Structures are given as structure tokens and as C-alpha cells.
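Re: that chain you flagged

S.,

Sorry for the slow reply, it's been a week of failed gels. I finally had a moment to sit down with the sequence you sent. For the record, here it is as I used it:
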Amino acid sequence: MYESSNKPQGHAQKLSAEIKKAFPKLNDEEIGYQASKPDKFYEAVQTKQGITRDEAEMTVKKLDSECVTAGAASAKGPDAASKPAAKAANA
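Prediction finished late last night. Pasting the C-alpha cells below so you have them in one place:
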């Protein structure tokens, strides 16, 4: 389960923004439950979005992974993601 205290604040904000996009029927308070009250968060997702808890958990896990990957790439510099592609193109 995701816990915001274990990751940088910027990550939590990015994840919240992505969750808001993925589950547009949730309000900010319900999105905030994701880290502090996951059962309440997933109950709101099930009720408002009409999907199962498993589907919601998989979506959040994917979003969390994407935020971590994006954060790691941006920490290396703005063109870090393009360097492997450039190497492959030159090979």
C-alpha cells in the first residue's frame, strides 16, 4: 500500500494529480484518503467510478509506478529520457 511519508512530497502531489485524472468523479477530500484511509478511498472509487477495488488498486499501483519512473527521469536531467533512444539510433 502506498504511504506518502515514505516518498518525497512532490511524488505525493504528482500521484494525487494523476489519481484525480484517472478518477474524475472523486473530490479532493476523497483523493486525500488514498494515503491515510485507503479503505475509505477505495470505497469511494467503487461507488463513484463503478469499478471494483481490484481494478482501482491496479490503477493506483500503475500510476504510482509511473510517477516514480517520471520522477527518476526528471532527477537525471531534462534530456535523460532521450539519451538511450539516441544511443540506439546511433547503433
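What I noticed first: Residues 1-5 have pLDDT under 50 and may be disordered.

Talk soon,
D.
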